[in-house]
Specification:
The complex is a heterodimer of chains A (337) and B (597). By secondary structure, chain A is of the alpha+beta class. Chain A has 11 helices and 11 strands. Chain A folds into 2 domains: 2-89; 103-325, 2-Layer Sandwich (BirA Bifunctional Protein, domain 2), CATH 3.30.930.10. Classes of the chains: A alpha+beta (337), B alpha+beta (597).
Chain lengths: 337, 597
């Protein structure tokens, strides 16, 4: 029996030596080690071996198996053309496709998570709004110079327009939920300005805003919450200063500036030599805004803050052209290689 | 707004702050200062003045803010006019109520010339060109006080100046030679025969030259809304229009007027040859604001001493009468209590407010609209299926349905006039883009608004559009998402999310986080019920769950539904698990609930 094993070994050493390609190698592997292959067959015959020979036979068979496995694994053969082609086109052998959220959605989700943990709802409202909700209810009456801060795209001038700021969502929120106080809501949204589209400007961009109306809300709450948001987005070491700033819908107004990550406050072309980058606007909701929404400003106070998402997202993803974000040449690697 | 450090010190002689510190302090109190630079040995700051602070479009207003912030003296310049001998009254006619105040005077026997070096440097630092001494001094005063003014060469204009809303002149040529077509509602300064000046831009017709010997100077403030409208209509923005469309202080006019007159007399000699004309029909009524001195602390969330607030208001020039505060006329932005609170907090210092005290968590009613949850849910499912999210332009070149398309009125982008009515067209464009880059096997989606009109109403809906390079897989993925959609061009599908029924189906379920201490074994019992017709299993589970009640029901599931081929009736096999009760009670409730008695 052991002589048989020796013959088998020699036969297969020769066969392995003559293998030409990986297809032949695979066939031989199955012939030897497949479920119904030669080695399994030989193992199944142990029961027929006389008892005194069983131990030696088993040892020899194991040795044969190990040696042939070793020879097969060390055998280098050319890959067959056909198999290579099949592998590349077959999804069975490809890595699974991974879908991706848009970078702006990813940023929105990061922020939503921060605010949901603080008890905020996520809110939205129409993008076509009336002058009343985009301006008047935010303390910007007709002919107010603050309107020049935003070039408006009109649908039907002067009444219907595409919202120029997410504060328009705030105006809706306050009007609709003025009996559901207190309120905590955050809202990502598209906003529109009548700007020429080029590498750095677009007529549509994205803002994120958060609003709180409650009793005894303070600037300390506002600044603390904003700082938490910035640390979530930019990391714990980010340096943000909070300064006086004017927006008609808030008072006192607060402007957050982030220390320039490029020059660390020294001044460079990126921050226009200020050392700081403006990060949006905020403040305590103006009493007139609350009153226009039917909320008693003697009882309730609140804060609001908003920031643009496009520039931050572009910096994070190293995108140089704002058009890339909206229907441009933005793509995603299909899997983790 | 440019600010020259050395000239700021004319109002703040004790100012002794390093330029970088001054830049940061100006920024912190609300006047964002990008940078400062050195021009001809002068340190020049570049400030962003906010629209509500017209007073800070001049050195004087900024100096007032800084004198409060640094608690240093604000020097009031002694600016009385020389004694006037002339009895001559200027024949000025104000024909419109859009003029809030005008002061004017005639100066004669002047010797105009090129400007002195200090004045040329000043204007250079402000980005203005030097013309001649008289013109440059009018600009200097505008920059100093933020109040525009004008000088007319009376040899060309005559003394018969008329402030009026234009009704007869069609053309106007400005000082720089720009030719403008005039409307009827432009505020102008004319003489009976000539258009002389816009409210915010002088005219060529009466320009000052080096030969000018006799002038009328005027300093005025107008209805700012009209100036703004005029400036926009004529598409002309000047240093004067930027200022005149803000709320300027009529009470500051005499100071600026006297200063200008003195400077011209000082630099060009000459005499005053008329009485001072002062048209001021309606004196401004300053507000009296009822103020609670505790409010700055309550709103800021930090302790701001009442003494500090009171002192701050005094230094701002407010009159304090118990709890009633009257702000100075120059501070047009202060009219209600919130304005005063802001003053107290910004001068106390925003940097004193701690930054590490975020709002604590609070349980409030969730007012998130259902479609937001649905959109989040759909996006998650789509990326799990291998789709990439894209965003496209909501404004597009072509309309799908001209009858319902919404058109923008003033979009400056000719390729983006219509609000999109479908996302599919955006996806087609995106596919073109991907093909251009030879991207293999694209598979992407967009969720966004589509827009249309019905009669006079503008409507918008959330829509989802998908593209898959393999149309069979697209159909399969839609089935996975439980969405029905028509397949367009083999590989595209679009579903209007807002039209989906039963949005609740997609919403995350409320999960009870209640932890339970088990004190007895859970008892599980089966029950078969026979029904004549097929029923919704979820409704059956809801019905029996309510009958048993949450206090003892651990879980209830249907393990089998079987239709008897002989009777055609349906058998539903339930498995109910009970807790918090004993065997006997559980069995009794079980039999009763499933009508097994």
């Amino acid at each position: 029996m052991n002589q048989n094993l020796e013959a088998i070994k020699n036969e297969y050493i020769s066969k392995i030596a003559n293998l030409k390609n990986d297809q032949e190698l695979e066939s031989l592997r199955i012939e030897l080690f497949g479920r119904n292959g030669l080695i399994n067959n030989l193992f199944s015959k142990i029961k027929d071996i006389p008892n005194e020979e069983k131990k030696q036979y088993g040892a020899n068979l194991n040795q044969l198996k190990t040696e042939l496995e070793q020879l097969l694994s060390n055998k280098k053969v050319e890959k067959s053309e056909k198999l290579t082609s099949e592998k590349l086109t077959s999804t069975i052998f490809g890595l699974p496709k991974i879908g991706h959220l848009h970078p702006l959605t990813q940023t929105e989700r990061q922020l939503n998570e921060v605010f949901r943990k603080l008890g905020f709802s996520i809110y939205n409202s129409p993008e076509i709004v009336t002058d009343e909700y985009n301006f008047a209810r935010l303390n910007v009456p007709q002919n107010h110079p603050a309107r020049d801060m935003q070039d408006t795209i009109y649908i039907k001038e002067p009444e219907y327009l595409l919202r120029t700021q997410t504060s328009a969502i705030e105006a809706y929120l306050l009007a609709q939920k003025n009996k559901n106080l207190p309120i905590r809501a955050a809202f990502p949204g598209s906003v529109y300005r009548n700007e020429k589209v080029n590498r750095s400007n677009h007529f549509v961009f994205h803002q994120y805003q958060a609003v709180v109306v409650d009793k005894n809300v303070t600037m300390k709450d506002l600044i603390g919450t904003m700082d938490l948001m910035f640390k979530t987005l930019y990391g714990p070491d980010v340096i943000v200063r909070y300064r006086a700033k004017y927006y008609p819908e808030v008072e006192p107004g607060v402007g957050p500036d982030m220390q320039c990550f490029n020059c660390h406050g020294e001044g460079c072309p990126l921050c226009k030599y200020a050392g700081w980058i403006e990060m949006g606007g905020s403040g305590m909701i103006h009493p007139k805004v609350l009153e226009m929404a039917g909320i008693d400003s003697k009882i309730w106070s609140g804060f609001a803050f908003g920031m643009g998402l496009d520039r931050w997202t572009m910096a994070q993803k190293n995108i140089k052209d704002i058009r890339t974000l909206m229907g441009g040449n933005l793509a995603y690697k299909p899997n983790e290689l | 707004m440019k600010l020259i450090y050395s000239h700021l010190k004319k109002f703040l002689p004790n100012l002794n702050i390093e330029p970088h510190q001054l830049r940061d302090d100006l920024t912190m109190i609300g006047h964002f200062t990008n940078f400062y630079e050195e021009i001809d040995n002068e340190i020049v700051f570049d400030l962003d003045i906010k629209v509500n602070r017209g007073d800070c479009l001049g050195y004087y207003g900024l100096a007032r803010d800084l004198s409060v912030f640094y608690n240093i003296e604000l020097k009031q310049l002694n600016l009385n006019l020389p004694k006037q001998e002339s009895k001559y009254q200027l024949p000025i006619n104000i024909k419109t109520n859009k003029v809030k105040r005008v002061m004017a005077v005639k100066l004669s026997n002047l010797k105009n010339s090129t400007s002195p070096e200090w004045l040329k440097t000043f204007l250079k630092c402000h980005g203005s060109k030097s013309i001649n001494t008289i013109v440059d001094l009018t600009n200097y005063i505008m920059f100093l006080y933020g109040i525009p003014n004008h000088a007319f060469d009376t040899a060309k204009s005559t003394d018969n100046l008329i402030w009026e809303i234009n009704s007869k002149f069609k053309k106007f040529t400005s000082l720089d030679g720009s030719k403008l077509n005039l409307n009827n509602d432009i505020l102008m300064i004319n003489n009976p025969n000539q258009a002389l000046s816009l409210s915010f831009w002088g005219g060529e017709a009466c320009a000052i030259s080096q030969n000018t010997q006799e002038i009328i100077i005027e300093v005025a403030v107008y209805d700012r809304t009209l100036v703004r409208q005029n400036s926009r209509q004529l598409k002309s923005v000047t240093e004067a229009s930027v200022r005149l469309e803000k709320d300027l202080d009529e009470e500051l006019i005499p100071i600026a007027f006297n200063h200008l007159t003195n400077l011209i007399l000082e630099n060009c000699k000459g005499q005053i040859t008329s009485q001072v004309f002062d048209y001021y029909p309606q004196k401004i009524d300053l507000p009296k604001i009822n103020f609670d001195f505790n409010q700055p602390s309550l709103i800021s969330g930090i302790e701001i001493p009442i003494d500090f607030t009171s002192d701050c208001f005094k230094r701002l020039g407010c009159l304090i009468n118990n709890n009633f505060i009257t702000p100075p006329s120059i501070r047009k932005d202060i009219s209600i209590e919130a304005d005063l609170i802001e003053e107290a907090v910004r001068f106390w210092g925003y940097q004193k407010i701690p930054i590490n005290k975020a709002l604590p968590f609070k349980t409030l009613e969730d007012i998130t609209p259902k479609e937001i949850y649905l959109i989040e849910n759909l996006k998650d499912q789509l990326i799990n299926l291998g789709y990439d999210e894209i965003l496209s332009w909501p404004l597009v070149t072509n309309s799908n349905d001209p009858k319902t398309v919404i058109t923008t009125q003033n979009s400056i982008n000719s390729e983006a006039i219509y609000l999109r009515q479908s996302l599919t067209q955006s996806l087609i464009k995106q596919l073109d883009q991907y093909q251009r880059f030879k991207l293999p096997n694209p598979q992407f989606f967009e969720i966004g608004k589509i827009f249309y009109k019905e009669g006079d109403h503008f409507l918008e809906k959330n829509s989802l559009a998908l593209y898959h390079h393999d149309s069979k897989q697209l159909i399969s993925d839609l089935q996975t998402l439980n969405l029905k959609a028509e397949i367009k061009n083999n590989n595209f599908a679009e579903i209007i999310i807002d039209d989906l029924k039963k949005l609740d189906h997609y919403l995350p379920q409320d999960i009870s986080n209640q932890a339970i201490e088990l004190n007895s074994q859970i008892i599980t019992l089966d029950a078969n019920i026979i029904l004549d017709t097929k029923q919704d299993p979820i409704k059956l589970i809801n019905k029996y769950s309510q009958n048993i009640g949450p206090k003892i029901l651990w879980t209830l599931i249907i393990t089998d539904i079987y239709q008897d081929p002989k009777t055609n009736k349906y058998r539903y096999t339930f498995q109910a698990s009970y807790f918090n009760t004993d065997d006997k009670t559980a069995k009794a409730i079980h039999l009763k609930t499933f009508d097994l008695l």
